[in-house]
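Consider a typical record:
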Amino acid sequence: MPRIMITTDSPRRTDSAPVLLDERVHSVHLSSGHAASQLLERLAWAISDAEDVELEAHSLAVARAPRHSRRGAGHQAPARERTRQAASA
């Protein structure tokens, strides 16, 4: 039976990703403009909810990360740290 599933993009375990829509679909869901628009509306809600879940998970991961690991590769240390590094060299 045809099925539409919307989940978040989980980099770790796919079985732990939340399922935000799991719906069996039939050709009747596309048989009229009204039925198709209802299906599309449910898809839009689930996609929006999945984006919210992923954004929240990303925000929590950034908040939990140690401060030093948040710097990008090209990020310079603050002036105070550069002064300490220069003095100890």
Summary: The longest strand covers residues 19-24. The CA atoms of residues 78 and 84 lie 10 Å apart. The chain is about 45% helix and 10% strand. Residues 3-71 form one domain.
